[in-house]
Backbone:
């Protein structure tokens, strides 16, 4: 897959190197030649020196030939501009944008061309909650512009789901159980799988089905 990464800071370079190692064709866009000269990247990374916020630069970089754009600069305004240009001017199918400041996360949506926003502070908060919380539904990640969420819940002793099979939960169609983590083992949920206390349930839900899953796994409605 052809992937363009805007911003050659520590995050952008790490992403570019990692994607090349995974076998992708990667273009790293950076406006500073000095940054390029000081940076260590995999030989497979292609550099383009230019301003990713300028349409003319993106045309020279032949951005329209890429499948994915990752807006990874350290500036939220730049990431939004790059995302919008990539979507509206070059019709990039998939755009992933880095959120540097959580207060700006609400802007990283389809209106700005963003298909997936990644907020490190939000992820860290979710991981801390996941580590210390039992009997609560924790949002780990959002997909499809926030319409789909990956959530986790560790079943408490009083969970209404304990000792029930997956089929007995009678979950709505737009709830997909992804995995049951039990101790050191990960199980694929089957209709006959029986849920136990301390099971970690990973699921995909929509905005509409989030409360339904919370009720099924925790018994709580708010």
Residues:
């Amino acid at each position: 897959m052809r992937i363009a990464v805007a911003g050659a800071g520590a995050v952008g370079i790490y992403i570019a190197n990692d994607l090349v190692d995974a076998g992708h064709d990667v273009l790293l866009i950076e406006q500073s030649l000095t940054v390029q000269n000081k940076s260590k990247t995999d030989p497979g990374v292609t550099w383009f020196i230019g301003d990713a916020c300028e349409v003319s630069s993106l045309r020279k970089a032949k951005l329209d030939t890429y499948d994915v754009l990752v807006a990874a600069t350290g500036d939220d305004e730049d990431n939004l501009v790059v995302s919008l240009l990539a979507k509206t001017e070059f019709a990039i199918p998939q755009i992933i944008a880095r959120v540097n400041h959580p207060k700006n996360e609400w802007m990283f949506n389809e209106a700005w061309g963003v298909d997936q926003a990644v907020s490190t502070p939000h992820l860290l908060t979710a991981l801390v909650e996941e580590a210390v919380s039992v009997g609560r539904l924790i949002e780990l990640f959002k997909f499809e512009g926030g319409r789909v969420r990956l959530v986790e819940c560790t079943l408490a002793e009083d969970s209404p789901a304990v000792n029930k099979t997956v089929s007995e939960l009678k979950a709505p169609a737009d709830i997909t159980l992804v995995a049951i983590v039990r101790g050191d083992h990960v199980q694929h949920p089957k209709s006959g799988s029986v849920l136990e206390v301390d099971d970690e349930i990973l699921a995909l839900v929509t905005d509409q089905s989030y409360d339904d899953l919370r009720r099924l796994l925790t018994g709580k409605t708010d």
Observations:
- The chain has two domains: 2-118, 133-218.
- Residues 67 and 93 are 6 Å apart (CA to CA).
- Residues 133-218 form a domain with the Alpha-Beta Plaits fold (CATH 3.30.70.1450).
